[in-house]
Amino acid sequence: MPAIRLLPELLINQIAAGEVIERPASALKELLENSLDAGATDIAVQLESGGIKLLRLRDNGRGIDHDELKFALMRHATSKISSLDDLQNVASMGFRGEALASMAAVAQLTLTSRTADADHASQISAQDGHLSDASPASHPIGTTVEIRELYFNTPARRKFLKTEATEYAYCEEVFKRIALSRPDVAFSLQHNGRTIWQLSSGQDALKRVTMLLGAEFGNAAVAVSRQAANLSLKGFAALPAYSKSSRDAQYFFVNGRFVRDKVASHALRLAYQDILHHQRHPAFALFLTMPPAGVDVNVHPAKSEVRFRESQGIHQFIFHTLQQALAIPAQSTPSASAQPAPFNSMQHSLGIAQSNAAYQVWEMQAGQGQIPAMGATAERSGWQMGSGENTPDSPLNTHHAPDIPPLGYALAQLLGIYILAQNARGLIVVDMHAAHERIVYEKLKASLDAEHIATQALLIPVSFHADTLDIASVEAGQEALKKLGFDIAPLSPTTLAVRAMPVMLKQSEAEAVARVVIGELREFGASRVLTERRNELLSTLACHGAVRANRILSVTEMNALLREMEQTERSGQCNHGRPTWFQLSLNELDKMFMRGQ
Ligand SMILES: Nc1ncnc2c1ncn2[C@@H]1O[C@H](COP(=O)(O)OP(=O)(O)OP(=O)(O)O)[C@@H](O)[C@H]1O
Ligand SMILES: [Mg+2]
């Protein structure tokens, strides 16, 4: 066995670099975070060949003193913390004092910087772990770090890098995350001489989010904003219609730091569970702010994981905030205060103003733009599909009425499946069963919560064949059945009878719904049926209780359904996360007919 000896400094740094600087994107992340820690308001990034050949970042932060330049490149040297207490309350992005030293060990690094009170800039460079002396240079106040040929001296590592295009994509993702977290700061990104992103400073959060994640996300997003004690959750969460087949639009930040965290992910998933199809992934950009002492950021060298001291409380807070933000009825016309107000510095508190969430739903469902004024509609009133019926609440009688409800008035039923309605923007198409199913589901939930599900006695009890276990389950589950609005009792050792059932399910077949409930009781027992299985069960019952295809509805019934949709939370999606309605605007119709072209 060779003797035990201390490793040379360069090798120590190269080993550390393996953890901190996995690829060009991790170097970029560290550089961006250093600039933000230095108070920069303008940060420019230039990459060549995916950042492998060159990664250069210039900022206008406070700079580094001539005499301290060399320390910046030394391991375990930091200006950000100096005690354990500091570590436990860390508010800066960096604190480990190793990022630059690691980069200097695996690339050619040049650091040029100037502070406000220096009359000129200084420059220092590192090659193979050897630091040059600081020499005078020309540079405005701020810092430029240049990293060339990443991993040139550790070929094994370099081999693990992917293609330039892939490495660039990782870099861009890192850039986007950090740019999202600080709309107050100007950022630019160039790759191989081409400007890819140019984001000006002082943008409001929605603008920054929309620029980086796309207008579609912006339109489908509801503003989230909640403060409780010393916790705050702000940002934007997309309604289910803008969901993804992968997790690539999930941005979660803790105290400004992008993290992947199991507690948060689980809470978010749960908040979307009731409205999102199980194969889809929600999209969001959310910022949790909390006292630094409540979260340990020193979990992983790359600082992309955190540990909450009170994870249960954080879970609850995130879940409830999101669930509330997403529970929006399919209604409400945009108001003057619709757009989120701009906000200023997000430095420590991400003060995103609450917007009128309903407006966002409208935008999502109805496409761009505002509802036209009534005059505009009246002018086009030649456009009527004429269902033949002109009921008191049909659109023909509302030309001079001040308001058309958001989902408009029913015109006709299409093939026994869809309701066609007319609102101020044009045509609304509603999936009748899906919409009604959500309404029944939400009503069942609310009345079960209030312990009052209205029941209706059947004129003639419905009896059906049952086995011993069915009968035993019914006997043991009497209390649960009552809470659910059912009266089911054994008639004989092989027969059960439904004597009463929830009014809301009166459209359904008594035996079928009774079997659903009994099946659940058999499999899970009464207490689980009312707790963890509750939503599943109510959702199945709602499906039975909702109007079936091919049932002919009168215009009055259709209008009643539209009005209920406007009142019901989450009614934009059915219980399985599919949309329940969409709008075809007059413009879109005009386009189809090439009118005015
Ligand atoms: N862009 C910059 N502007 C001003 N000072 C900087 C800049 N980049 C680095 N520094 C200084 O150099 C020091 C070392 O930076 P480095 O990134 O290696 O460590 P750190 O940020 O302190 O901790 P971590 O390793 O967690 O990032 C910093 O503490 C800071 O004082
Ligand atoms: Mg750092």
Task: Name its key features.
single chain; 597 residues; alpha+beta; Heat Shock Protein 90; Ribosomal Protein S5, domain 2; Ribosomal Protein S8, Chain: A, domain 1; 3 domains; nine-stranded mixed sheet; five-stranded mixed sheet; 21 helices; elongated; binds adenosine-5'-triphosphate; binds magnesium ion
Written description of the protein model:
Helices cover 35% and strands 22% of the residues. With 597 residues, the protein is α+β, with helices and mostly antiparallel strands. The protein has three domains: 9-199, Histidine kinase-like ATPase, C-terminal domain (Heat Shock Protein 90, 2-Layer Sandwich); 205-364, Ribosomal Protein S5, domain 2 (2-Layer Sandwich), CATH 3.30.230; 371-597, Ribosomal Protein S8, Chain: A, domain 1. The strands form five sheets. Strands 1, 2, 3, 4, 5, 6, 7, 8 and 9 form a nine-stranded mixed β-sheet that branches. The longest helix is centred in the first third of the chain and has 18 residues, at 164-181. The termini are far apart. Magnesium ion (MG) binds next to helix 2.
